[in-house]
Amino acid sequence: MAKNLLIVESPAKAKTIEGYLGKDFLVKSSYGHIRDLVKGDDAIDTENKFQQKYEVPSDKKAIVSELKKLAKAAEMVWLASDEDREGEAISWHLFETLGLKEDNTKRIVFHEITKPAILKAIDSPRKIDYNLVNAQQARRVLDRLVGFELSPVLWRKVKPSLSAGRVQSVAVRLVVDREREINKFNAEAAYKIVAIFYTGKGKEIFKAELSKRFEEKEEASKFLKDCLNASFAINSLEKKPAKRTPSAPFTTSTLQQEASRKLGFSVARTMQVAQRLYEAGRITYMRTDSVNLSDTAIQAAEQEILKAYGEKYHKLRKYKTKSAGAQEAHEAIRPTYFSEHTIEGDASEKRLYELIWKRAIASQMSEAEFEKTVAKVGISTRSEELIASGEVMKFDGFLKVYFESIDEDQETATDNDSDNTLLPPLEKGQQLTLNEMTATERFSRPPARYTEASLVKKLEELGIGRPSTYAPTISTIQNRGYVVKEEREGKIREFTVLTLNSGEIQEAIKTEVTGAERNKMFPTDIGVLVNDFLVEHFKGIIDFNFTAKVEKEFDEIAQGNKEWTDMLEGFYIPFHSEVQDTLENAERATHERELGVDTISGKPVSVRVGRFGPLVQIGTAEDEEKPRFASLRKGQMIETITFEEAMELFKLPKKVGEYEEKEMTVAIGRFGPYIRHNSAFYSLPKGIDPLDVTQKQAIDIINEKRQKDIEKIIRVFDENPEARIENGRWGPFVRFGKQNLKIPKGTDVSAITYEDVLKWAESDPKAKTGKSAKKTTTRKTTAKTAKKK
DNA sequence: CAGTGAGCGAGCTTCCGCTTGACTT
């Protein structure tokens, strides 16, 4: 039996460290926290100094009993959880739960998993820092109190099963606020002038732009007219050097942002893939807020840069974290071995690894150097100058390996036509020939909707949430139905272009698509409803600065300057009375709007949230005739739907005639417009207005789909025509009546027998429940309650 | 992928942060 037991948080870490320490040390992992507050409402005694009741959750029992046994047998137990609030608390929980003794327990910390760092840590052990532990307890208790007092208020005043919390409610608020900013945004049009010149020598052309825009078409038109017979010359020519420096290596949040922009990963996917890379020993820990690289890593990066690119490309850089509330228990995310430019693995692992490798290597490379040229073009008939700018890269530096992309909302407002490319050789005073000049109507853009990753970025800036919770938080607000990640079709907008060409000015109307979105965060009606309720009654809690404020107090507790129970007292007393007050006095939250009166029936038209989601209603429950209902569609919200849009909803479903003695109905479902015929669904091709579908069109669509379905069939089983192998979206699968069966990996598709199909059908888990897995939530809860009994 | 939009009313829901698998899909 080993003399020393060393406990860290993560098993992958344990494995690495064991290799450094030799056989006197047994290194084990606690798998994160081993204790938590008990589940129900009596975990915290708010009357009695916030005394807590902890328990070991069932999935941690095995690990705790194993650690207990090992601790008993060891001469010395080293608690090596992370050096932050949570890590310190983990050590304390271990100390308490494993029944450790002061004189054979040591607390050590390190920021990087390298042999010298670990040996150094072992040489300088300390004791558990109870101030830090108390700060964590205050954090934990505050979050429980906020979550478990606010949520029941929502159950009573809004809808059961809803949730609220210090982090998630602010995340939702950001999305709701942004949506409202966009809704009230008025796009302003202005004319942008772009000229294309010949240099005169040869046929070289370049582009120049007017820095100001004209609000009125008349002004723009006047400008072009003035240019009709003007002469143009280079007034000034300025060249100056410019530099670009590399970004710091990745933290959790910057990795999520770049993987989203460059690879199109959701934040959850990024974390899954990163976890695999970490477990395979390819990268350092992926949940970190630190941009710091260890000295050994800096050296290794240097060596690799010298070897692969040469000395000119290297520059030693140290990065400092500036994000609020960073606890820096780990290094930045970097490859464990810089010499491995790529790795084996699946496509997503390879791509994410390369991103991490490039970013980390680039962070230790020299600046990219440019020469920026700005030429000002004078117009003989006007005082304004047109500006042409170009950029030449003189030295690529870090750009040799890495180019950081930027978010939509940080792009220059001048669209992308002013690309910084090379200008032809120019001289001051040089006369130019105008090839073409355009005045294009451009519109100002509303603030960008959040993507998952840009929402994480915003949360991090506000100091809300931690690297380990960013991805789960983004999932939670979507799972609760507060926010959806969706595509939205844009609208077609007209704009005017005036063109001066060959001595005349022409006007044209063009169209563009505006407001189209992909994978953006939209609030739902229930998200808006809950948010507005919380903002009205608990302004302090879902204030963007609430976390920052309490974090400051947690820091004071950690430094021993404040009693944690005092801090909680100060928070809880007013908070709890707000909760009581709201429960007693607040109206039930509703979000109902009267849109107008239906001209045909004379009944009122209103929108509200119903049991199955947002709906429009014509008439009221008191009427003799039952009200008519219609669900809102994707992209429509109670807050913004118009009377006309609402009335449109009642035009569908619409019967479009019969085919094969069965009715055909056109309607709109979750996946868009479709035709329903004989209990089958046929989606409408894009571009056909569901309101205009004719009987003939519908029949064509049905037959086309049938034809395609036949083409998908690979084989029908003789024993049963209901059983067949088909080509699906992800490859072949077996259709067996209403069951869709997965073909086990490695099966030879051509050799599948009917017996195989029967066997698979039997073991198909969906067959037993009868229905397809429609309501996973209800199934989960019933499973849980069944377990309890 | 539809339509549904009522009411009965026991027992349940819920937080944030630290970690992985064991589960489906």
List its salient traits.
six-stranded antiparallel β-barrel; 789 residues; DNA-binding; alpha+beta
Could you please describe the fold and organization of this structure?
The chain is α+β, with helices and mostly antiparallel strands and 789 residues long. It contains 21 helices and 30 strands. It has a 6-stranded antiparallel beta barrel with strand order 9-10-13-12-11-14. A hairpin with a 2-residue loop joins strand 16 (491-501) and strand 17. The chain is globular and about 95 Å long. The protein binds one DNA strand of 25 nucleotides through strand 3, helix 3, helix 5, strand 21 and strand 24.
Quick description:
With 789 residues, the protein is an alpha+beta fold.
Distance between the termini: 42 Å
Low-confidence stretches: 412-418, 767-789
Instruction: Please compute the radius of gyration using only Cα atoms.
Output: 33 Å
Q: What coarse outline follows from CA principal-axis ratios?
A: globular
The total count of helices amounts to 21
**Percent helix among the residues?**
25-40%
- The overall average pLDDT, rounded, is 90
Number of strands: 30
User: What can be said about the biggest beta sheet?
Assistant: 6 strands, antiparallel, barrel
The proportion of strand residues reads 15-25%
In the sheet with the most strands, the strands line up as: 9-10-13-12-11-14
Structural class: alpha+beta
Topology:
Blueprint: E1 4-8, H1 11-21, E2 25-29, E3 36-37, E4 44-45, E5 51-52, E6 54-55, H2 61-73, E7 76-79, H3 85-97, E8 105-107, H4 115-123, H5 130-157, H6 168-184, E9 189-198, E10 205-210, H7 217-228, E11 232-244, H8 252-263, H9 267-279, H10 295-308, H11 347-362, E12 368-379, E13 382-395, E14 431-443, H12 452-461, H13 470-479, E15 483-488, E16 491-501, E17 504-514, E18 517-523, H14 525-537, H15 546-558, H16 564-585, E19 593-597, E20 604-610, E21 613-618, E22 628-631, H17 643-648, E23 654-659, E24 662-669, E25 672-677, E26 680-683, H18 695-712, E27 713-716, E28 723-728, E29 731-736, E30 739-741, H19 754-763, H20 765-769, H21 776-788
Parallel strand pairs: 1-2, 1-7, 7-8
Antiparallel strand pairs: 3-6, 4-5, 9-10, 9-14, 10-13, 11-12, 11-14, 12-13, 14-16, 15-18, 16-17, 19-20, 20-21, 21-22, 23-24, 24-25, 25-26, 27-28, 28-29, 29-30
Helix pairs in contact: 3-5, 5-15, 5-16, 6-13, 6-14, 8-11, 8-12, 9-11
This protein binds one DNA strand of 25 nucleotides through strand 3, helix 3, helix 5, strand 21 and strand 24.
